[in-house]
Structure of FCD domain-containing protein:
Amino acid sequence: MRPPNSQPSEASGSGAKAPAHETVYQTLRKQILFGDFAPGQAVTIQGLTGSLNVGMTPVREAIRRLISDGALVFQGNRRVSVPILCASDIDELNYARKTIECEIARRATSRVSPEDILELQAIDDALDRAISTGDVAGYLAQNYRFHTVLYSHADAPVLTDLADRLWLRFGPSLRVVCGRFGTQSFPDRHKDILEALRKADSELAALAMGRDVAQGMEQVSLGLDEGN
Amino acid sequence: MRPPNSQPSEASGSGAKAPAHETVYQTLRKQILFGDFAPGQAVTIQGLTGSLNVGMTPVREAIRRLISDGALVFQGNRRVSVPILCASDIDELNYARKTIECEIARRATSRVSPEDILELQAIDDALDRAISTGDVAGYLAQNYRFHTVLYSHADAPVLTDLADRLWLRFGPSLRVVCGRFGTQSFPDRHKDILEALRKADSELAALAMGRDVAQGMEQVSLGLDEGN
DNA sequence: CTCTGGATAATTTGATCATATTCTTGGGGC
DNA sequence: GCCCCAAGAATATGATCAAATTATCCAGAG
């Protein structure tokens, strides 16, 4: 999926044009998405101002946006932290993801070209390589990329934005999956999705996506129990 | 639907506890949702600081949050304005709403109590009264409330939040519907939804909700053509 | 004498504001 | 018609105020 709320940026990356708050937002977003932050970790404004070499205002705005995305939670008092998911949160996310991402997969099926499928295949291969080499960061990145690229072909920017928001919510909790990373090999749902895309079978794609989502959320759930 | 990203507030409303940026956000949110702003209207920070009697920082944060919600759009240069929906935007919103709100309606069906249905009935009656008296603000408020209350019974906070975000996107465009307000009376889909709820028929409820959403979006679309 | 409990002080952090800087834009001069 | 300059608005910083958590200290009980 594409970055949501993407501020218009210069087409082919001139360097210094992006405002500071946007840079901070993108940086934190990536860090949250790829498990650089631990669930429960406190996020302080002044801590970020130091490490990112910017003032408080851009940091405040970025944090506020991430709270709005559900990527961070406001702790009642004024503290902000990375969310710790409970079982019902995971159920809830699973349900929401299933509703949205199955539909996106269904819609994408009739719109992907054979070349698109090859690209997805290549990403999935890279994902397998990351798994076999124990490259956790690579695994998370390629997995995210697989969904991102697939959804980009659905021609449904609004729904895709919403799906993207949901990923931010469980990003930090994916890190704990890393513990038993090579030990157990689950059935690869991405292969099923690719198969459905090749057959141009929307319902099958939606079904496979639903299984992939459920499997991912189950991993998070297992990591949750492990943590306790 | 409930206000998304609702900051924890004091249980039974002590007045002065909410931070300024939260107050500003809620105020602007309501104004956008109920058509106080016109599509295309420019939103400036300094304009709001004056009218709301707060500094720039809270206003900045509120605006940033609303941009993240899709309620305002960042115009590439540093300008912010109320979104003008084009035909494809409306299609897109219709599709996203259909996906999400039908599912919420489906889920709510098995969870509403007879008392809840009576409450929804009362809201719909109030809505009819607002229509017959030409009370535009009341119509918008009751219509929003009908969906809010129904969705609150679905026990799906994440999806409900997402649905809530979508409403913000077409809120300003609803105002133009007011022009031909009493002239044409469309079939009341809320009645169909209530009927489905009474029968506890989830699929029927989802279907009726889909029709209600489509009808609403069609109204927005007609208003769009009118404006040109 | 030691340990626990509560209350207060100190530090840390968030919220707000006033100010400086940078960028966009619109108008006037060449 | 193009370019330069000025005005206005947004971005970003640092300072200041308020709130909350943490630390400390003293009193009383065991």
Observations:
- Residues 44-46, 56, 60, 77-80 of chain B lie near DNA strand D (CB under 10 Å from a C1').
- The domain at 87-227 of chain B is CATH 1.20.120.530 (Four Helix Bundle (Hemerythrin (Met), subunit A)).
- The first helix of chain B runs from residue 20 to 33.
- Residues 1-16 of chain B have pLDDT under 50 and may be disordered.
